Amino acid sequence: MSIVNNKGFFYKGKTLLSNIDPEEKANRIADSIPILNKTLYLCPSPLYGYGIERLLERLSADSAVLCIEADTSLLALSQEFMGGANFFSNSKFRFANSCDEKFLCTFMRREWGSRFFRRVEIVRFTGGWQLYSELYQKIHKSLQQEIAIDWSNAATLSRLGRYFTRNVIRNLVFLRDNYPLENLSFGNDPVLLLGAGPSLDHALNYLSRHFGADLCDPQKRTFRIICVDTCLTALNERGIRPDLTVILESQHWNLRDFIGLHNRSINAVIDLSALPGSARVCGTKTWVFTPWAELSIFNRMEKAGLLPFKLPPLGSVGLSAAVIALTLTQGNIAAAGLDFSFSLDSFHARGTPGHIDKLRRHNRFLGLLNERAAFQEGVTRTVSNNGSFVFSSPALRNYRQLFEREFASEPRLFDFKTLPPDEVCKILSVKPVIKNRDEKNPQESTAGQQTSAFIQGEKERLLLLRNMLSGESPMDIDKLELLLGECNYLWMHFPDYAATDRRPSGKDLADGSPSSISFLKRIRAEIDPFLKLWEWAEKYHLFCFSPSNYLEKSV
């Protein structure tokens, strides 16, 4: 390292800081930066911190500066020279001591919370960014993606958050039939993991030729089959019975996936927020839980022993199925139909509800091609793993990136499209299958009393909150603030509060600010529908556990 006049210096053959008034030059850069609201300004290699104080003075309260340094020597230099700077105590300034992408995404969310920023802008006050330009660009892109995911999750939560919570309340009465995922194991058996993408047809055609009739019989084939629920009708058309299906969908159109399957007794892993009607057509039910938001009710369910196995929130049934497959087996997993893309003439595999609906609507005015999907905004044409041209939408690309991030380092997971079919068959025929699933009775447990007490407690919370907001009980601001936190499922789907932990403070509630009054009015409108739902759950639960109605418990 070569330092000139304690101001500018050269390092690794690069001029990182000019020796001609570098501080004033950095201040001019800070003055020229366009200032935007809700923006994170990423400052790589800040060195002495020139220009940062000037930039902080110009920022609004909802923007911030994040400094990073990839070089250990330069990091030590910055910590030495910037440690006593006034802006280090500024709430809008942070200096991260790592350049790991995952760490920085977590750091950003921890320091400022979800949905605090809308964008990330790079600010280059020095030439230090040149030393690791590709790394800094990757970090910039990762932070942008993390922010985009937060806002996308918020949009989903605004649209579906109420559905999720209502389904959880309805599904509580079915938890007594839970076959815990912790008790389920496929040992070392290989697993065929099936999504509903167009490549499923090719995979099943080849496997049918190779394994013959054994493919259809779970007792004869040498591997297990785990599929997403959208695959069921396509598998049923071929006479293939899976070992396990995964159900996450919370809306009514999920019922299309079970048409013609009411007598098949499909064993299923069902998310607690899934449509309750989907559970009625399944055989053995294994309940799981995907936290779509940080709701206080989940903590109370966990304390009551009612919260099932927790899955990471990945947003896609295919990705969740991959997590379940990796959990259940120590053997290899071959995935087919997890395409994250589509072709002009095929969006889903043959025999799936979407494909059947396309055939049903086909007439001389409406063809079979997916031209509307292929040419909508944001769709791009790309080359798949097998060399064919396919289309991919922004949502599918995000799922693909998430899949690669979560499972790229998993040596047991293989893609059917990237391996010769003969190799896939060898993976699935490693050894004769050993049926090591322990077919115990469902967990009869003490869930009766626990569920009853839990439902009663939730009803009492809502009644107390309703009485306070209606004037039937005296207003207690501290108690009101506590209840709003405990019952945050009432407001977590509000567009202006979705996927955040921000809400009107106790002071705002006490002062009666317009925003807090509006918030409480919306809360009041949410209480009665949820209260009726809790009352229904209480009555249904009592009916199911009544000795005279024992035969009706599984209805």
Tell me about this structure:
- The protein is of the alpha/beta class.
- It has three domains: 2-151, Vaccinia Virus protein VP39 (Rossmann fold, 3-Layer(aba) Sandwich), CATH 3.40.50; 179-428, no CATH class; 447-552, no CATH class.
- It has helices at 22-32, 52-58, 72-82, 101-112, 133-171, 199-211, 232-237, 276-279, 296-303, 317-328, 353-361, 371-374, 394-407, 421-428, 447-470, 477-486, 506-511, 514-544; strands spanning 2-4, 8-11, 14-17, 39-44, 64-68, 93-95, 119-122, 191-194, 224-228, 244-247, 266-271, 282-289, 309-310, 333-336, 380-383, 389-392, 413-415.
- It has an eight-stranded parallel beta sheet, sandwiched between helices. It has a four-stranded parallel beta sheet with strand order 6-5-4-7, with helices on both faces.
- Helix 15 packs across helix 16.
- The longest helix has 39 residues, at 133-171.
- The termini are far apart.
> Major sheet, described briefly?
8 strands, parallel
Instruction: Report the span from N to C terminus.
Output: 75 Å
Over the alpha carbons, how many angstroms does the gyration radius reach?
A: 28 Å
Tally of helical runs: 18
| Helix content, binned percent | 40-55%
Shape: globular
Count of domains: 3
List segments where confidence is low: pLDDT < 50 over at least 5 consecutive residues.
1-6, 435-445, 547-555
Mean pLDDT: 85
Spatial ordering of strands, largest sheet: 13-12-11-10-9-8-14-17
Q: Which structural class best describes the helix and strand composition?
A: alpha/beta
Question: How big a fraction of the residues is strand?
Answer: 5-15%
Number of strands: 17
